[in-house]
Design brief:
4-stranded mixed sheet, about 40% helix, alpha+beta, globular, 4 strands
């Protein structure tokens, strides 16, 4: 049995925040792979089918994963695009299923949340994305002439954008030499707009170089891990320096694949 669930855009407010009115938060203290998240989605579907008589209950809660990691200053929140009825029997059954596997991640706790802001993580973010405040201008690193920044790129200087860029940069820690290429492609390219709306806006403004970089990383995560200077574009975005980000992306895109670079050296 299939269910229609809200998408992340249904929770987005006019000022760029993502607020879930009724949520179930599954807290984890470790990184979760895409394979685990896909497995979790299947478990939710199976549990919902066990309680199919609750499918018409109006009080549904959206399921959000919250990863609280000791090396991050904020938590990573992922809406898995699944809902369940707010029923104690169903919720207990869901937790029972999630704690069944002998190996692998397990939720530390489950909590109900109301009007939960899942993006941006920081509570102090300036969420007026259409304007650049005086404080934003003071925080821009020396060397950027604000008078020469085109109006269509001013959003990159806002706190809301830079906060998301910091979160995006932190999320790149999830990519390692054993990452599945299809997971990287799905998480950072196909779902870029849903997960990182401000970064997607910058990608459009920069002729798609950000998504092209992430697609190239997806082609060979092992090589990208060894040549991780390409992540500099995300650091530049977090500082509001779109030009430096664009230049880093271009350099990485122009770099020849390792196999091509060594071809013909023996001849």
């Amino acid at each position: 049995m299939t269910y229609s669930c809200p998408t992340i855009s249904d929770f987005q407010t006019d000022d760029g925040r993502v607020i879930v009115e009724r949520a179930i938060a599954l807290r984890y203290d470790e990184y979760l792979s895409m394979e685990y998240i896909e497995w979790l989605q299947k478990v939710v579907d199976e549990v919902r089918n066990e309680f199919s008589y609750l499918r018409k209950v109006s009080e549904q809660r959206s399921i959000v994963i919250e990863q609280r990691l000791s090396d991050l200053t904020h938590s990573i929140k992922i809406y898995i695009q699944k809902e369940v009825a707010d029923n104690i029997g169903l919720i207990d059954r869901l937790m029972e299923r999630l704690r069944e596997p002998f190996y692998g991640p397990k939720p530390v706790e489950l909590t109900r949340r109301h009007n939960w802001q899942i993006f941006p993580s920081t509570k102090t973010a300036d969420l007026k994305i259409e304007k650049t405040s005086g404080q934003d201008k003071k925080s821009v690193r020396r060397g950027i002439d604000l008078s020469k920044v085109p109006a269509e790129f001013e959003f990159i200087l806002t706190s809301a954008f830079k906060d998301q860029a910091k979160e995006f940069n932190k999320s790149l820690d999830l990519i390692n030499s054993s990452s599945r290429p299809d997971w990287v492609q799905n998480y950072y390219v196909e779902l870029l707009h849903d997960r990182w709306s401000h970064i997607a806006r910058a990608d459009i403004a920069m002729d798609g170089v950000i998504s092209k970089v992430m697609a190239k990383v997806a082609d060979d995560p092992r090589h990208a891990q060894s040549e991780n200077w390409w992540r500099g574009f995300a650091i530049s975005l977090s500082k509001g320096d779109g030009l430096a980000a664009y230049e880093t992306c271009q350099r990485f895109l122009e770099m020849r694949p390792q196999a091509d670079a060594t071809a013909g050296l023996d001849g």
